[in-house]
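OP here, attaching both records as promised.
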Amino acid sequence: MVLFAAARLRQTAEVIATAARALRQLDSEGAQSDAIDAFLDRSGTVAEQLEAAHARYAGAGEALHAYAVALRQAQEEAGPAAREHEAAVADRDAAAKLAEKYEGMALVATSEEAQRDYDELARVQRLREDEAGGRVVTQGRKVDAAVAALDVAAEAAIARFDDVTSDGLVDSWWDDVRGVASAAYESFQQWMEENDAWIQLLTEALGYIGLVLMLASFLCPFTAWIGVVATATMLASTATEAARAAAGTGSLMELGISIVSLATFGVGGAALKAAAKTSVAKVAFERVAELQRGGVPLSTAVEAVNGEHRGIMDGPLDLRGRMRGLGDPELGRLSTWSIESTAALARAGAETVARLDRLLVAGTALRAASAGVTAARAVDASTGWLDPLLGDLRDATTLRIENGTAW
């Protein structure tokens, strides 16, 4: 790997040198052209910068190549020595255990002959222990010497790098930021690739949890915290999909579906309800005007209309209202208000009520669409049933980032 990096530095240096020679040659050919003259006014400085860059890359390549040679030599010397050192340690420890064993048996021997035999066996093992210990020291010194030589080579390479980078050429702050960002992204992408198996399982689980909570919010409209938890779960799922899409382990299509599911359940429905509330105010004005045309004083008409509106918005919601709001109690009450207003506005305000009805129907349809999209997405995450319908769209919308190339 180090040799490969050194070769790339040298090749880069050669490319830079070729570019510098081409600029110098253009300057010496004496071609006459306003464009060429304008270019040559700057080419001298560019050529000088290129030559400085060539010296930097060539010097860095040489330094890295010298270090690679020292590294290979250290590996060749230290590798066998390290293996021999490991074997010697094992031999020494085994001999020491046997020596201790025989020495213990000599202490409890029942006869002088048996004691002499065990003492001799222990002496032999102590000799083997000393011999193996000598090999441990010898091979250890070889490893230490190889590492020390490599450290010297590393210091020389570092000094050479310091010399070649003191040429006045410096990166801009943007180059530095981009370099840090690129390194951070590579680490992020590698982590996402290595952990994609459990992240994908997490995404599937979040999808099903979000679907269950969404359906629960439809069936239990008076339990407001369910909708909040459902939205939070969908946000976590969308964030996970965004991370997978950015790392190239997930597709932009899956992220788009997740965003659509979240938007229709939360932001889109809230926007439609806000517009519906504006229409409710207009319908209230129409109803007040209707009562005035029937001879009711303004204050009495306003109080009557406001009282009825409060009664509907604060009162109990019947089954039909729940179904019209598809689990959203506020949407269901607004629908009930629209029905009551349609009956009350006998002569005028039909267009205003019709606009309110369109907004309410759109809100309900949006919630139904959100449930459908969320269900399809949750099932597809674990079964892939959409693959035959989408063809290659999933692969086409997956980022392929290789060797640092841009998206």
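Record two, same layout:
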Amino acid sequence: MGQRHFLHRDGVKLSYVDFGGDAARTVVALHGRAGCARNYAPLAHALKPDWRVVGMDQRGHGWSEHANDRSRDAFIADAAAVIEHLACGPVMLTGHSFGGVNAYQLAARRPDLVRGLIVEDIGCRFGPARPGESWPLRWDSLDALLDHMRGSDFGLDRYFLDSLVEYEDGWGFRFSDAWHEPARAALVGDWSDDWAAIRCPILLIHGTTSRFVTTDEIRRMAALNPRTQTAIFEGAGHVLHDERPAEFTQVLRRFLASAEAA
């Protein structure tokens, strides 16, 4: 099931879920935008008993607070604080999408905390966000929310459903697109220097039909840092740990074993 815990960094309450296992073999997982720590429950189950998975609710998501500071430094410092709080570093660190950027920037800037890095389907170069579908903050009923999702590009994706809760004024998610807008704006830029600076083993995972990063960008990143291994999932999309869980776990297990031995 996993146990939820909390800590504070600079007055911000942060949450993480410890799915249990050997502290000496810990994988810390950073979800993508609109995700939460519980997204990693299936992976934690698949990696037991060999690896302990700790999923973090990044600020503005899950049970972590919606802090005012949405800078790059804030997200990176939060992840570092969780690893230091666990007192089992250096750890294996994995991140999906937005969480993948946070993960590789932490690995570049705090190499003492990261033993091996897994980045799931994200690149290094970001322009301004394109206008997207706007979701209501609340729905009157669960049926209305689910009907809305069925008609969206995402469908009934458990990646979102993990963050679904009932509030006093209706049903909604534990994230907000409006809250995240400044965080997305802060992502704009070229972070290739961070990628090139990473000194631990790297696994870069990509789905060829992803809407968020091209295969050419993945190949460019692999050439930029010789420590990079790639796993290309033909015909898969952006949320590989949900779309291809068995294949994803197999690839991850092989990398974790090799990084541990390095």
